[in-house]
Amino acid sequence: MEQHNIQGPLRPGDRAPNVVLDAITHGGKIAIDDFRGRRPVLVGLFRGLHCAFCRRQIAAMAELETPLRDQGIDSLTVVNTPTERARLYFRYHPIPNLLAASDPERVSHRAFGLPNLEFTEDENKWPYKVGMGTMMSMRVDLPGELPEPMNPVAASEFLDKLDGYEVTDDDRQMKADGYGQLTGEFLLDRDGIVRWCFTEVPDEGRYLFTSPSRQELMSAAAQLPA
């Protein structure tokens, strides 16, 4: 596997690297280069399905699959979950027309420059380290799902119970290795150049556990070169 050393997330104008991953929603492999020279693609790089926030981010991205396809843009969802575990999840929680790939080693996240946040006792060096006190002082606000703004740990536990999500050994392994993996969505043109992105990296965690607005993403999609 080609190694990529990126200082921070890819930005508009950067050329996306090729990564080759196991397909979840069909057999075989999926590669970024499968789209290059053919069609633009929105690439969503998420933590594993063990992450309640990512399950919602994945659903939010999936809601845009049809309007993006109508503009000639494909979508690829990547999760840090082993292939068979992910296949089992989507068998019981199907998302129409989902194209997804498994990346438990987080190769794609590193290639696109997304840090794996380290949790420390009290050292803060965003987006590489964050103290647990700082993390626990954050509040996640999901009206209609959470009864009130909650710290990320409490919110995650509440949402897992709400979803009836049963944590497996695969999930525990993914949490141990990449619980702090930051996520992002990257819109690539047909040549594989990043034209727009949204990540959890900027502004000291302001965008943690959130998705881009539909309006922002569709506006970027409308501006892609023909």
TrEMBL record:
Residue ranges occupied by any Thioredoxin domain in the UniProt entry: 10-164
Annotated Gene3D superfamilies: Glutaredoxin (3.40.30.10)
SUPFAM superfamilies assigned to the protein according to its UniProt record, in alphabetical order: Thioredoxin-like (SSF52833)
Molecular function terms from GO: antioxidant activity; oxidoreductase activity
UniProt xrefs under InterPro entries: AhpC/TSA (IPR000866), Thioredoxin-like_sf (IPR036249), Thioredoxin_domain (IPR013766)
Record field: transmembrane: none
Organism name: Rhizobium giardinii
Domain of life: Bacteria
Name listed for the protein in its UniProt record: Peroxiredoxin
Classification of source organism: Bacteria, Pseudomonadati, Pseudomonadota, Alphaproteobacteria, Hyphomicrobiales
